[in-house]
Each structure stands twice: as C-alpha cells, then as structure tokens.
Amino acid sequence: MKVTLLGFMKKEFAQLLRDKRMRIILFIMPVIQLMLFGFALSNEVKNIRLAAVFPLSDRISHEVLSKAFGSGWFKPARTTSTRDPSEWIRADQADVVLVAPPEGITQALQRGNARIQLLIDAKNVVRAQQIEGYLTAILQTTALDFIPVAAAPQGGVVFETRVLYNPELITSYFMVPGVMSMILCVITVIMTSMAIAREREVGTFEMLIAAPISIREILLGKTVPYIALGMLDAPVIILFATAVFGVPLRGSLLLLLLLTFVFVCTTVAVGTLISTISKTQQQAMLGGFIFLLPAVLFSGLMFPIENMPIYMRVFGYCNPLYYYNSAVRNIMLKGGDPSAVLVNVLILAAFAAGLIWISAKRFRLTLG
Amino acid sequence: MVSEPNAVIAVDIRKLTVKFGEFTAVDQVSLSVRKGEIFGFLGANGAGKTTTIRVLCGLLVPTSGHVRVAGYAPEDGLEKIKTRVGYMSQRFTLYDDLTVAENLKFSGSLRGIVGRKLEQRIEELLEFVGFSRATGAFVKDLPGGIKQQVSLAASILHDPEIVFLDEPTSGVTPGARERFWKLIRELAGKGKTVFVTTHYMDEAEHCERIALMKDGKIIALDSPGGLKASTFRTPLLEILPSRKMAEGSWLPQLRAHPAVESIEPYGMRYHLVISDPARLGEVKAQIPPSFEISQTAPSLEDVFIRLVEAGFIK
User: What is the ipTM of this complex?
Assistant: First the structure.
C-alpha cells in the first residue's frame, strides 16, 4: 500500500506541478483572490456625499458637519442651487441630506423635542443603513457634548460600546480569514474531482483498476496528493493575509494549521464524492461549482448565518466552510481558545469521515 | 496449489452474457483458449469484443455465465485474476503528460514492483519492445507506434500469464503493426497466452485461432485455414474488369446466374463464389473475355465479408 501511495504521490505531483496553468491556479490564483476580496470587497462605506440644511447660527449642526467630514467617511456634496433637499438625492448629487429643524438643532434640543430629518439614498440598502448608523452616532455624541441631559435617551440609559478584537472595524480583518476557506475549497474540491474524472474521461482509469489495487488504495492515492497540495497552499495564504493585510494572528499557528489540515481533508472528500458521480471533467467542474456557490454563501463569509431564518440556517450548520470560517476568525482575531476551536475541528473531522465513507461506498472498481 | 484439471486452458468462458440495461453487448458466448495460444477476436465496432475482454480482466461484472481466467473465477477474488493478466486497452493506457520512465514506474507501483527490481524489469522490457529513445521523453511527443510499444511494456511489467490486447495496432503505421505482431509472437513463444482483438484481416492471419463476433455472438471460431475452408467449399474466382467495362450490365447478369452464389467487390476487383463446382466453365463463359479471371484462395477478408456482412449461414 505504501508503494502504491508513493507512486500516486509522484505521479500526481508531476502531472500538476509540471503544468504551467496548474501552477498558476495553485499559487497565483489564491493571491489574486485574496487581493480582490481583501481590498475590493469592503463593507466599509466611504466617500458618502453629505449635504445639510440648517440655520447658520446652529452650532450643533456646524459641529456635526465638521465631525462627519473629519471622520473620513463623509465628503461634502456638490449641490446645485435648488432649495429642495430631496431633489439633491433624486439628481444623485448627495447620498444623504441632513435637514435640521427651522430653529436649528441646538435650540430644538434645548426646547426638549428635536426632530431631525435624514434623507438617505437607499438604492443600496446596506450602504443606507450604514450611513444612518454613522450619522446618528455623530449626532448623538455631538448633542451629548452640548446638552448632556437633553440628548440622553429617555430613561437615562447611556450605552458605552466597546468593540473588541477588531476595534477599528477593519473589514479585511474579517474578510481575509473567510476568503481563505473559499480559496482552499475552490482549489481542493475542483482539483480533486477533476483529477479522478480525468482518469475516467481519458481512459487511464481502466488501467488503474486493471491492477490489483483496492478501493482504499485508489482513494488514498487520489486524495492524499491533493490534501498535500492544499497544505502547501495554506501557508502561502496565511503569510499573505498577515503580511499584506496585516490581519493579526493572535492564536496558535499550529492550531490554525491543524484546523486547516482537517478542513482540507473535508474539502478533498467533497471533491472525491463529486467525482464518484461525474463521468467527465466537465461534469466534475460543474458539480464542484454547484457545491461551491451555496457553500460560500452559507459559510458566514459575507452574510452571518445567525441572521438567516432557522430553515436556512440549517444549510450553514451542514456546511464545513461555516465551521472553518468561524474557527479561523476565532484563532486569528480572538486568539483562539483551544477548546472552542477543537469543537470545530472535531465537527470537520466528522464531515471528512462521513464523506469519505460515502465515497468509498459509491466507488466502483469496475466499469459500466 | 489446487490441482487443475484444465492446466492447459488459460481462458474458459461458458455462456457469458453481459447486458447494459436493455442492450445485450455479449450474448451467450462460450470459448476456451489454450495456454500459449495467440487467440484472435474479430468483429466490427460494437460487436462485443471489448466488453468480453473487460470481463476477462475483471473490469466488468458479467450478467450471467461462467468465466475462468488463469485458473480463477471472478468469485475467487478479482485480484487473483488481475495479478495474472496484463491488459492493454484500446484507449490511452499511458499518461500523456508523464515521461516514459514515469509511466512505467507508476505502473510498477500499482503492482507493488519497486526499486532495483522495477528498474531491471523496465530496462528488460524496453529492450524487448525495441524502445530506443530516451526514457525521459514525454509520451505525448511519441509517435503512435512507439506509444503502443511502451503501452505493451507497461501492461506486461508484472510478467502476466495471459495478455489481453484490445486493438493494439489501431491507428499506427503498417511498419509499426508488423513490429508489434513480431512482439506478440515472441510473447507467445515465451509461453504467454495472447488474446488480441483487431480490425485488420491480415493481422488475424497471425492468430492460431480466431473467433468472429457479430452483435454479441460468436458466429465462427476456427483456425484461419479452417475458417476459409469451411466458409468457402466451392471455388472462388477473382475478376478484374477491363477499365472501359468497369461499370456495365455484366454485373447484374452475373449475379442473376443460378450457379453464382455471390459476387462481392474486393478493391478494384470482384470475388465471385460458385455454388456448384461442376458449372465453373459455364459461369466463366458469362464473364466478358476482356476481364482477367483467376481462381484464388479465399482471404480472411473474404471470410469476414461472407460471414459478417453478407450474413452467410453454413
């Protein structure tokens, strides 16, 4: 068995690493994807065009504007002379317009009932919600500075919020560890499933099974090289995440690598299962993407599973990527309490074992 | 070792049937092949040759019937058969993106042959098949004939008793075909049983016995000489029409003659079978005098055309 496995390792590595396209997919593509997701896919809303209507004497309005522009999120909107604030939004000259009460926010607050209007362009709901959040926060703090009692919410409860582990709320800290799962998944699932399908398509599979080898040998031979490749890719991705995006690695690197190893075993098992139902490379590729798309959507990479309705959350809990993502973020950002991470490691190991078991059941050493 | 009453029988098939859904690929086939024999399997594409071979190599599970290869039935464990047979499929048996040496080493690792023993064996086999290039050459850069040689080397790396070759010479040059058949004869000379399928009638002449398959059934099984003798009991005339009369009314007239059993095109010529040898002169008189006529020995191609295409039943 050792001889056969070694033979497979040599053969698969020679075939993969010799192919220039494969080398690019293995080592360049992860870096490009990391760049794309880390830099471009940002939840942070910037360059918000802010306009405001308020009496010139209103000190709070002046202060809110200068804080807003000073925050880096907002910039002044270039509005035309029309006096109708909603026209500015309609003409796409401003993203948000702050309309103060006629007597000004300062006076209105002193009177005890300040109604401030925010006109927000909500063609992008996520952006609109964030703009609202930013502006109300600025309004709140500014008002508190000027008139402490009046601005406090009724009941007098004042929240003091402290954001832990990612105090600057840098999106890439959150995105990059998530993207790692996606990249590893794309590489291992697609490559594994296509490698087996290729043998079937070209006809070399017939030669493989003409030799007296067992299902265990052939499965090991076709999976171990891809697990090794995934583990070759993992340090590249981790290094890039920490060096280029400055994502902190607060937990143990060893634990992260162990977690990644178990995850790669799971995704290679997914690829193997896909290959047992594909006759051609094209089918394998299609099968891979049919798995990948929902797997990434339900991984908590971009949309938290916890926000989904219960019947949708099930997909998240059945998804290896979800457990990997949350554990990677835990290790990198929170320092990864080992017992919390090990639960995810065990769940992933159970996934891998189950998938390999099904693949072995489905795998046939005969044709037709 | 269990005593084997059929120690001289390498392959024994009894009423083998293979069905794919509703389609019957192999239909009640029975045959046996002696040890050391070169056994040819002839038939058109889809006749069931490859399916039969796949069953014999343990790659397909038969629907019904009994198979015994190298003394073992599939029920005894497929690996028993697989260690004793070599198989060269008609599709790619080599990895195009690996070198000759890498391919052979991988084949070796699949069969547990390693190290010095493997290197010796590879050297020996490459010499046997007459491979004279660098073993570092990529398979994709080799011409078809050389690829087949390397393929053969890969399939007999473990020194099998029986070698199954499925259309080993399709798509290679006539020179390469001839060299390949020399190798097959040498293998048989070393006591190996060779089970070979082919499209080429001239190649089939090299076989000791031939089974002719059509639609999953064996329609004839004999030595090449025996097949010719049993298929053509009456004289066979070869006719070369004169150029200006190549097309003409003589053909339908001749075909209608009561003593003419069949007339089939054969290249530029025609092969005419007489039903009654006594009326040979009578038929000859019908043929335009400008035609060249000769009585000829039937080739396997004649046999094939007669049995498979013309649907001749003895």
Answer: 0.80
